# Entry
Amino acid sequence: MPATSTRRQAVNLAHKFSLFSEQWSQKIIAEMNDYQFKLARLQGEFIWHTHADTDEAFIVVEGELRIEFRDGEVTLRTGEMYVVPKGREHKPVAEREVKLLLVEPRGTPNTGDQGGARTTPGDVWI
Amino acid sequence: MPATSTRRQAVNLAHKFSLFSEQWSQKIIAEMNDYQFKLARLQGEFIWHTHADTDEAFIVVEGELRIEFRDGEVTLRTGEMYVVPKGREHKPVAEREVKLLLVEPRGTPNTGDQGGARTTPGDVWI
# Structure
């Protein structure tokens, strides 16, 4: 599928969210150079993981996300963002479903260096 | 000023917008690797310009933005985004004030290759 940057059409986040309901599955909605904008619905606890080579930007479109670190945590609500520095072990947690916009380099695996059962395909456009 | 990624605090977009009122002035709110998230208030017409080396992501936080191209245009409303491809000449236009979140590489000048009077400092954090 072509990158959004070749289309002459706005990408509507709410519309894109309406196209999928599964949780913990990242959907690409746009590319900027070698970075991607991805939507995700999260609920529950993810696994502890680290992205050794890249920062990772979280923007909460709707809901609340807690990002736990080994020595603390940060809570993001609708309209808030946070950038997890590369190499920082973290665990996303959402008590109720949260809608997220993620920005990170193309090919960044959702489970970072951990791999395993929670790893999902990172090349799905919506 | 330190990058947001070293702070353990959410960045609230509405709060950040409340800290400035000037238009056509980009304010950095977060960094991700060598990219920056910047807020801007736009109203009126900007100049035609091109970023030869990078795509540029526009996300409308509130309002409406028209991005004109030499052969067309795209209109973004609240909750919509668009990535202008590198090398594509464009002119942002807003009939009323629009609040934007921009994502692009650190050091990308607002006027691209044009320079001139509308160029503003690109290193201002808020």
